[in-house]
Amino acid sequence: MTCKRHGTGQGSAQTVEKEKRSGREIIRVAKTVKEWKQGPPDVEAVRPGRCPGCGAASRPVGGRVVLHGHGTRSRQVLGPQEPGGTPRQEEVRVRRYRCQACGATCTVAPWEVWTRRLYSLAAMVWTLALWAVVGLGLAAVREHVSPWVHVGATSARRWRTPLKWVEAVEERRLLLRVRPWPAGWEARRAAAHVASAVAGHAPPSAPSPPLAVQAFWGAVHAA
């Protein structure tokens, strides 16, 4: 999986994530799930400036539109909308486009949506911070970030999903701006490194410490 920066028709930089096995890509725009649901963008508003597959201009001067709207698709997103907020299960209709030049498809979604992840990007970082920086156990952390109350006995005792997120960061499949850590670090230490690094990307408008809160708000800038 590779990521790069790409523009929309409005010229703003967006994050593009490519799924090599499927040939499809996700383009994340600077909108939260909440903003997206309150005012879903029309097909023109978030049309990428170029096809992320072949690079063809989506609307060449004097020519026909190359990147056509290809309907919408439902995506589920879990987690709180702010640090300490009530965990929610949201459904958002993301936009799809298809290139008339190469046939590739791409999806445009809020910045919190990540390929093959149910939780929002901010919720993932918040989880790692609560576990590795604040010091909560994973079972307790799950109560802060998951809207699902009923889980199996084994899952309740050992929530392993955050460990997979740490592995994804280490393998450069998640939070690409986080620098690698030394080989051999145990997962909790690595998670603390991730949370601290992401907190460093929090915007000036973000609340002051604690670090876990800054990590939540820094997630969008560390993708």
TrEMBL record:
The keyword Transmembrane helix applies. Keywords: Membrane, Transmembrane, Transmembrane helix. The keyword Transmembrane applies. It comes from the Bacteria. The chain crosses the membrane at residues 118-141. Residues 1-23, 70-89 are annotated as: Disordered. This is Uncharacterized protein.
